[in-house]
Amino acid sequence: MSLTVDIRHAFPGVTLDLSVRAGQGVTAIFGPSGAGKSSLVNAIAGLLHADEGRIVLAGETLFDSAARVYVPPAKRRIGYVFQDGRLFPHLSVAANMRFGARFAPEGLDRAEMDRLTDLLGLRALLHRKPGSLSGGEKQRVALARAWLCRPRLLLMDEPLAALDEPRKDEIFPYLERLRDATSVPIIYVSHNLAEVARLADDLIVLQDGRAVLSGRAETVLSDPKALPLVGVREAGAVLQARVVEHDADGLSRLRLSGGDLWLPGVSAAPGATVRLRVLAQDVLLSRDRPSGLSSQNILPVTVEALFRGAGPGVAVKLRAGEDTLLARITARAAGEMQLAPGQDCFAVLNAISIPRGSIGHAAGPASI
């Protein structure tokens, strides 16, 4: 199932001019406030009538300004999870969930409701009212309600933005479960790069109403061109690793294509695939293999390219086996090391603890 969006819409001070393609998996829409993220998903949902363009979902034209086609929101079969959940306060959790089924082609599927109740951990909440729920619990109910309409597409607009970090940690495993259990495309809007790195298969970066970068999440996030868009402190790489073993001292050995890493706090079983987020600011470079360091995470790498920014820093794109790493060092250090494309050197990765619940099968990046 695929989504094609080509729209143009004028707002005061900015014009939305977007061409977006999304398929199976999670496509994250990332960008600063005012970039056009919410306007994009509102246009897909039919809540924003664009000035011109075309939107096609699974072969059905939902909007075509030239042909004067406009399918009303209620008939698009698109699930929408808003930032604030928007649950009906007078209805129980179960009744809120059943409301979503009113828009399903075949009505309420009780077996699906039972499966979703267990998948999202809602069994103990079914008889409660939204006023007695935590923020994370409300978002899980909103997610279930959107899903029970049997959507062809699920839109999630900043669903975690109103939650504190503990509540985000609470809901992330449920989002990962839903992502891994469905083939329905998910559009996930966020200005939080940690969320994007943890959940997204594909990534589209918006700026001033336009898509400026797009592709596989790991490719976009390790692209030096992304630094001014995502911020130097958030830039880095997303890698897939296989859990090899857990040692008695609490460290676990993870295997990348370019070597092994030892990390704390990994709960995934040996053989599982996990996702790691490696920030550019946490990668040190050495011409020779260093010794006598506290860090055991040293990978042989090859310099692919260097990118000089407006400030004192240089972004160094590195090849580690089949993976791409990104390091941010000073221009002075790059000059003293005489770094150049094709040069072999060593990357030292600074390992820190992995947030609880942040690691799973091909999901949930740890910060290292």
Outline the structure in words.
With 368 residues, the protein is of the alpha+beta class. It contains nine helices and 21 strands. The protein has two domains: 3-221, P-loop containing nucleotide triphosphate hydrolases (Rossmann fold), CATH 3.40.50; 236-367, OB fold (Dihydrolipoamide Acetyltransferase, E2P), CATH 2.40.50. A six-stranded mixed β-sheet has the order 7-8-9-3-10-11, with helices on both faces. The longest helix is centred in the middle third of the chain and has 17 residues, at 165-181. It is globular and about 65 Å long.
A few lines on this structure:
The protein has helices spanning 37-45, 93-101, 110-119, 135-147, 165-181, 193-199, 217-221, 227-230, 331-337, and strands at 3-11, 14-22, 26-30, 52-57, 60-64, 69-70, 78-81, 153-157, 186-190, 202-207, 210-216, 236-246, 251-256, 259-264, 273-279, 283-286, 298-308, 313-320, 323-330, 344-349, 366-367. The chain has 368 residues and is α+β, with helices and mostly antiparallel strands.
Radius of gyration, taken over Cα atoms and rounded to an integer in Å? 22 Å
Name of the top-level CATH class of the largest domain:
Alpha Beta
Instruction: Please describe the biggest sheet, giving its number of strands, its sense, and whether it closes into a barrel.
Output: 6 strands, mixed
- Mean pLDDT across the residues is 86
Query: Would you identify the regions where 5 or more consecutive residues have pLDDT less than 50?
Result: 352-368
| Strand count | 21
- CATH architectural type of the largest domain: 3-Layer(aba) Sandwich
Order of helices and strands: EEEHEEEEHHHEHEHEEHHEEEEEEEEHEE
Distance between the termini: 35 Å
The quaternary organization reads as single chain
- Indicate the overall shape: globular
Please give the domain count.
2
